[in-house]
Write a structure and sequence with these properties.
There is one protein chain. This protein is an alpha+beta fold and about 280 residues long. The chain has one domain: Endonuclease/exonuclease/phosphatase (Deoxyribonuclease I, Chain A), CATH 3.60.10. Helices cover about 20% and strands about 35% of the residues. The protein has five helices and 14 strands. It has a seven-stranded mixed sheet, with helices on one face. A hairpin with a 3-residue loop joins β10 and β11. The longest helix has 16 residues.
Length: about 280
């Protein structure tokens, strides 16, 4: 057999096992077009949505047509994608359609370009930085994990927003360890805090990152960690945020906010995740 022909499927398999680090890891920034979006009102509506690498116009349509998501003020997007021929990321495209601001941080290469986390905001984003997270060799679909911290202004007060995407096939202890850089970063901030994203708190733990063992404790133990470090877990009773197996994978955690209504929304069924939203006001 021609060795080069044999090498092609091997290389393809390796690509599925481990996702490369993007050559350009800089944070992409999008500024809002003045006068397009309505001004910020209270309460603040925060949405977190793993969009499964869908294109920006589909995400924007899902946000505009969903009766709950259309009122979003801050949107944490997980698995935002920037294709090789795209002028900018899907988060950037969403921001341009909605008249919002956005920051996108590429995490690892997925298909024709990087997937990453993003924050799309009705109000200006003053700064953004990437937080590198501990990486575990989970054998396949493995890649760099990151979070992003951004500062926005709410009612004239700085608020720190975190977009997070944690690994799937890890133990309770490993998930808690992967989250610690975000927690430590947030503890150094004196601002109110919003931490949101896909924490992959499935009802399984994993033996050697390959064999799932049903436990039902991932979300409980993870939320214990957040509360132990002074954060609130207001969406703990959100119910499933995945379309499969009733899994609660996504969450919104806060410090310095009073959270009112929260729920999941279908998001026009563009993803294997549901969107999770919560209304909140700054604690006086």
């Amino acid at each position: 057999m021609n060795r080069r022909v044999f090498a092609l499927p091997v290389l393809a398999l390796v690509g599925c096992l481990h996702h490369a680090i993007p050559k350009d890891r800089s944070v992409e920034t999008t500024l809002a077009t003045p006068g397009v979006a309505a001004p910020l009102t209270t309460p603040l509506r925060v949405v977190t949505f793993n969009v499964y690498s869908r294109p920006g116009h589909e995400i924007a349509k899902a946000l505009r047509t969903d009766r709950e998501l259309r009122h979003a003020d801050v949107i944490i997007i997980v698995e935002a994608h920037r294709g090789a021929t795209d002028p900018c990321s899907s988060a950037c495209a969403v921001a341009k359609e909605l008249g919002f601001h956005a920051v996108f941080a590429p995490g690892h290469v997925q298909g024709d370009g990087p997937d990453g986390v993003a924050i799309v905001s009705r109000v200006p984003i003053r700064s953004a930085e990437v937080i590198e997270l501990p990486q575990f060799d989970v054998h396949w679909n493995d890649g760099r994990r990151i979070a992003m911290a951004a500062t926005i202004d709410v009612e004239g007060k700085p608020v720190t927003v975190y977009a997070v995407h944690l690994e799937n096939r890890v133990t309770v202890a490993q998930r808690r360890r992967q989250m610690m850089p975000v927690i430590e970063h947030a503890k150094r901030r004196s601002t109110p805090v919003i931490i949101a994203g896909d924490f992959n708190t499935s009802p399984f733990t994993w033996i050697n990152h390959a064999i799932p063992v049903p436990t039902g404790t991932q979300d409980d133990r993870f939320e214990e960690l957040l509360r132990a470090h002074g954060f609130d877990t207001p969406t703990a009773e959100s119910g499933a945020t995945s379309r499969y197996l009733g899994m609660k994978l996504d969450a919104i955690y806060t410090r310095g906010f009073d959270v009112g209504r929260f729920a999941v929304s279908d998001g026009s069924a563009i993803s294997d995740h549901l969107a999770l939203w919560a209304n909140m006001t700054l604690r006086r």
